[in-house]
From TrEMBL:
PANTHER family noted in UniProt: INNER MEMBRANE TRANSPORT PERMEASE, TRANSPORT PERMEASE PROTEIN
Natural source organism: Arthrobacter humicola
Similarity section: Belongs to the ABC-2 integral membrane protein family.
Protein name, as recorded: Transport permease protein
UniProt xrefs under Pfam families: ABC2_membrane (PF01061)
Highest taxon in the source lineage: Bacteria
Keywords: Antibiotic resistance, Cell inner membrane, Cell membrane, Membrane, Transmembrane, Transmembrane helix, Transport
Length: 289
């Protein structure tokens, strides 16, 4: 009996995100469940992964590219625009769904114990499943206009994907835990989602911001999503330009050597704070739900 007692684990305790890796099978089941529930009764199903960003792209392209004539000063503006949209959509979908993940799975959480981190992480995986088809469309469009990336640019794409996934997970853990206690968290996240598209150079060039902010431009660069979008433009949009279309200010100075490492450090800090907050609040999730 003494030996069995020593092996008992205090309810609610665990190793955080490390437990998610240990319960990979449960994570796989949750991802399948999320996808099935989301498209239950839907005619198009996963095809919505193509339709939604396509409609969003067309609206922005017509409003900004044609009506405001931004495409005139930006070669291959359609590639520039879409490469930013698909990345920001991945982040916003991950954050929004992760924020609601604990509350949406309240029935399961109240019945059994399993690592609570599984729910936000599963939603990020679902968002990744939506991101990949959009990425395929982006690559196809880039190839049509002569995309010729280097190995470094392809590696940067993978790195940025992982960074944005970690950022979405960290913020999702933070706001997902807070949302159990304060439902206003969903409204805060909705505002973040609304702002992030405009707070990153998705629809416009970073040089426009630099001209306005001047010496304070570094504040704009502290946003990890700003750096992520700039790297995506460097990897997808810039290799589609001809030699006479390239300009010296296509990418911000020090993007890879300075701002990308800073963005990664900020992302890891967000993940640490999100995991710490989540673990402290997760103990009483079942009671609060």
């Amino acid at each position: 009996m003494a030996g069995q007692t020593d092996q008992l684990i205090k309810p609610g305790s665990g190793h955080g995100l490390l437990d998610v890796y240990g319960d990979r099978f449960l994570l796989k089941l949750l991802v399948r469940k999320e996808i099935k529930v989301r498209y239950r009764g839907s005619v198009l199903g996963l095809l919505w992964s193509y339709v939604k960003p396509l409609v969003q792209f067309l609206i922005y392209f017509v409003a900004l590219g044609i009506f405001l004539n931004l495409q005139r000063g930006t070669p291959n503006y359609a590639i520039y625009l879409f490469s930013g949209i698909v990345l920001v959509n991945f982040f916003t979908e991950s954050l929004s769904n992760a924020t609601r993940s604990i509350v949406d799975n309240r029935d399961l959480i109240r019945k059994i114990y399993l690592p609570r981190e599984l729910f936000p992480v599963a939603t990020v995986w679902v968002s990744a499943a939506h991101f990949l088809p959009q990425l395929v469309v982006l690559v196809g469009a880039c190839l049509v206009v002569g995309w010729a990336p280097t190995l470094l640019q392809l590696a940067a794409v993978v790195l940025i994907f992982l960074m944005v996934a970690v950022l979405g997970t960290g913020l999702g853990l933070l706001f997902g835990a807070m949302n159990v206690y304060f439902r206003d968290s969903e409204n805060i996240v909705d505002m973040i989602v609304m702002v992030v598209t405009w707070a990153s150079p998705v629809l416009y060039l970073w040089t426009m911001v630099a001209k306005v902010m001047g010496d304070w431009f570094w504040i704009y660069q502290l946003n990890p999503m700003t750096v992520a979008v700039e790297v995506f433009h460097w990897a997808f949009w810039e290799p589609t330009l001809k030699a006479d279309q390239l300009v010296n200010d296509a990418t911000p100075p020090g993007m890879l050597t300075l701002w990308l490492p800073i963005a990664m450090l900020i992302t890891l800090a967000v993940l640490f704070v999100g995991q710490l907050t989540f673990r402290r609040l997760a103990v009483h999730f079942a009671q609060e739900l």
